[in-house]
Amino acid sequence: MARIVVKFGGTSVADTARIEKAAEKVAREVALGHEVAVIVSAMSGVTNQLVEYCRTISPMHDAREYDTVVASGEQVTAGLMAIALQKRGISARSWMGWQVPIVSDDVHGKARINDINTPDMIKSLGNKEVAVLAGFQGVTLDNRITTLGRGGSDTTAVALAAALKADRCDIYTDVDGIYTTDPRIVPAARKISRISYEEMLELASLGAKVLQVRSVEMAYKQNVPVQVLSSFDEAIGSDLPGTLVTKEDDIMEQYVVTGVAFTKDEAKVTLVGVLDTPGVASRIFGPLADAAINVDMIVQNISRDGNKTDMTFTLPETDIAKTQEVLKAQPEFKDCEIRVDENVAKVSIVGIGMRSHAGVAKTMFTALAEKGVNIQVISTSEIKVSVLIGREYLELAVRALHAAFGLEKAAA
Amino acid sequence: MARIVVKFGGTSVADTARIEKAAEKVAREVALGHEVAVIVSAMSGVTNQLVEYCRTISPMHDAREYDTVVASGEQVTAGLMAIALQKRGISARSWMGWQVPIVSDDVHGKARINDINTPDMIKSLGNKEVAVLAGFQGVTLDNRITTLGRGGSDTTAVALAAALKADRCDIYTDVDGIYTTDPRIVPAARKISRISYEEMLELASLGAKVLQVRSVEMAYKQNVPVQVLSSFDEAIGSDLPGTLVTKEDDIMEQYVVTGVAFTKDEAKVTLVGVLDTPGVASRIFGPLADAAINVDMIVQNISRDGNKTDMTFTLPETDIAKTQEVLKAQPEFKDCEIRVDENVAKVSIVGIGMRSHAGVAKTMFTALAEKGVNIQVISTSEIKVSVLIGREYLELAVRALHAAFGLEKAAA
Fold this sequence. Notes:
2 copies of one chain form a homodimer. By secondary structure, the first copy, chain A, is an alpha/beta fold. The first copy, chain A, has helices at 16-31, 46-57, 63-70, 72-87, 119-126, 152-163, 197-205, 213-222, 280-290, 320-328, 360-370, 394-404; strands spanning 3-8, 35-40, 92-95, 102-104, 113-116, 130-134, 137-139, 145-147, 168-173, 194-196, 226-230, 243-246, 259-263, 266-275, 298-300, 308-316, 337-341, 344-350, 375-381, 384-390. In chain A, strand 15 (298-300) and strand 16 form a beta hairpin.
C-alpha cells in the first residue's frame, strides 16, 4: 500500500468524458489498495474564458477578484471528479484550497504556498476516502482566494505530495514522459525512464515545457518522486509507464548527457561601445534586474580602442522593448547603440554525468563545428552547456548533438 | 444615507455587458451616499450548464459535490461585479458564502440559512466599500459549500438585508414590478406601487412567479421592505420605480382586492366511493403528506348510499403518479376509483381589505356566474378566495375578476 498524489492537467479533464476516464485510472489505483489524493485543473478552455471575462470588464482588474473568478474553474472539476469517483463506488470528496486550507502568501495571481494543513485530509485518506483537491489555488491568512499562477496545479500536486509525505506524485498530461529531446525534431528521441531532479530542473529551465520549473524545484527540495505520464494511455501511474523524476541515487543507468533542450524564445542584445570601467556590468544588469527582466547568458567582449567594450546578453524576446527603455533611461548608455538580434536559438545539453566526465563540451563544440554551426555565446553550469546559435541552425544542431551523445533509442 | 441591499438576478447579469450596466446602477446608489451590499446570481445559462455536467456524470450525484460545482457560478459573477465597480472608482470586494460566513444547515441543494456573521461586512460597508456577495450559497458548520435551491439568491438578499438591518432590499429582475394580474392576459393590468407582505405571500404562493415564496416569508418575518424593479429601466432603486413589498401600515391607499393570481400547474384528483368513517381524511392525506405531496384545495362531498363519499383535492400536476401510487398502496383505497382531471385552473383574488369588507366572495362568484364559468372547488383564507375552474375558462375568468374589482389602470 502506497500513498500517491495524482494530478490531471487541463487536457486530461477536458470534458465530462475525459473526467470519467481520469476517474477510471484513480479507481484502478484505489483497487490496488493505495491511498490517493487527486489534483485537478480546470476543464479545457474554462480558465481562458474566465480570464477573458475579467479583461473584458477591466484590463486593470483587481488581482484578488481575478483570483476569485479564475479559481472557480478548478472548483467545478473537483466536484465533478468526486461525483465520477462515487459513481464507481469509491468514497471521495472534493477539497477547495480554503477548505484544506492551503495557506499561501497574498501575492494574488502568482501566490506561493506557505503551509498545507494536512491532518483532516490524512484522516480522510485513512478512511479510504479519495481526496480531490482543486489545483492552482490557495487562501490567504485573511481568507481571500489566491491562484498560484499558470501551471500552478503542478505546484499544488507536488506541495501536497510533500505535505502528505506521499510515495509518489503522478502528473498526468498529454505526453507520455520526458524525452531526450523533442521527438518532432529528432524522431529517434528516446523516452527517459528515470531522470534526476537536477537534470529535470535544467531541462525545464532550458525550454522543456512538460513540467513547470517551480514544481520541479519543490520536488527536488522536498524529495518527492514525480512521474510524468500520459492520461491518454491505458497504463496507470503504478505501472510506472512514464518518466520518473527522482534523486540521483535512485537512477541505475546513468548517461553522461541525458537530454538536449532548446528554446527560440530568447533574443540577443548587444550594448555597443560602453566604457570598460569597473562596475559597468552592475550598472547595466542592476536596473534590468530591478525591472524584473531575466537576463540569461552574458558575454563581455575584449576591450577595444583602449577603453571601450561591447556587452552581449540574452533575454526573453517579450522583454526587448522594456530592456531598451531601461537602458536608454541611464545617462551613461543613452548614446550607446543597442543591437537586437531575435534570429537566435539556444541549444543546451544536460547531464549529471558531466560532473565526472571531462571532454563533454569538446564533444559538443566539435559536433557543431562539423555541421558548420557557428557558436555566438556559450554558458555553462556544473551539469549543462548552452550555446547560442543562429535560429536557422536549430534543428541541425539538435540532431547533431543528439547523435553525438548517443541518445537514440536502443535498436529494437 | 441609507443602507441598502440590491440583488441582480440571472438576466440582470447575463453577460459582462449586463454586469457593467448593473454596476452603473450600484454606482449611482453609492453616489447618493448609500451603503450598498450587492447580491449576484450566476450569469445566464451558467447554472444550467453546471447542473448538466453533474447529471451527465451521474444522475445520482452527491448533493455536497453538486453544491460545490453549482455554487461556482455566483462566485464568478461576484468577482466580475467587484471588478466592474472598481473600474468606476468605487471601492468594492467580493464575498463568498464561506467568507462571510453565511452559515446554513447541511441539507445540500436546498439548504436554509441559520446565521449570517455580519461584523466584518458592516465594517467594510462603513469604510465605503461595496460588498458583493455571491448569492444562492452558504457553508455548513463543517465547512462544506451549500446551495439554497433554485431562486435562492432572493433568499440570500432578504436574509442579508435582515442581518444588516438594511433600510431596503431591491430585487432587480426582468419585470418592473408586481401587477394586479398578468398583463399578457389583461393588458390593462396596473403595476402595484406598494403591497403588504401578507398579500405578496398569497400572490407568490398562488402563482405569481416574480418573488420566491421563501424570500417573501423571510421579508415578512424580519420586516425587510423589498422592492421588485427592472434592471432594464433607467431608474435605480432609490427612485422607487418598482413595487415595494412592505408592512400594511406603510400602505396609504388600500384596495379591497389587490390582485388576481392564477395557476395551471395543479390537477384535480377525486377518490371515488371511500367509506365515510371518522378519520378517513387523515388516512388519505397523512400518507400524501409523508410522501411530501402538497395537497392544496380539499372538498369532501355529501355522503351517498348511506356510508360512502367522494374526496376531491388538488395538487401539483407533477405529483399525480406518486399520488396514485401512495393511495393504491393503502388496502382501504386499493379498489377505489381515482379520477384525475388535469384540465383545470385555479384563480384567486387576494387583498388585505377583504378582512374588513363583506361581500367580496359574492362579487367574485357573481362575476364568474355572469360569464358562465362553473366553479368546481372553492377555498378561502382571511385575505384570499380561490376557485378551481375548467382550464379553458381561465383567461375569461381572470379578465372578469380584474374588471369586477376595478383593478384597471386609472385613466390617463
